[in-house]
Amino acid sequence: YNAVVNTFKMAGWTRVPVGSSKFAIYWGPHPTPEMLRSFNPFQRANHFPNSWQLGRKDLLGKNIHRMKRQFPKDYNI
Length: 77
Hints:
Keywords: ATP-binding, Ligase, Nucleotide-binding. One of its GO terms (biological process) is microtubule cytoskeleton organization. One of its GO terms (molecular function) is ATP binding. It catalyses: L-glutamyl-[protein] + L-glutamate + ATP = gamma-L-glutamyl-L-glutamyl-[protein] + ADP + phosphate + H(+). The protein is mainly alpha-helical. It has two domains: 2-46, no CATH class; 51-77, no CATH class. The chain has helices at residues 2-10, 33-37, 52-55, 57-70, and strands at 25-26, 44-45. A two-stranded parallel ribbon has the order 1-2. The chain is elongated.
């Protein structure tokens, strides 16, 4: 976390008050789908809904297996 904060500071970025819509990067807990829909095209978030499905190896494995079963001809990794 300190590496991220230090990098932002070195880039000249500043923290905005919670609830402000004037930001380039939202760094925090998973934003709601409604919040993501309200983002401007230049705004980014460090998480997206259900990203833990890819980040956890056990769930990633289950999802890959499910896709292979559901789309055997099209899904081959």
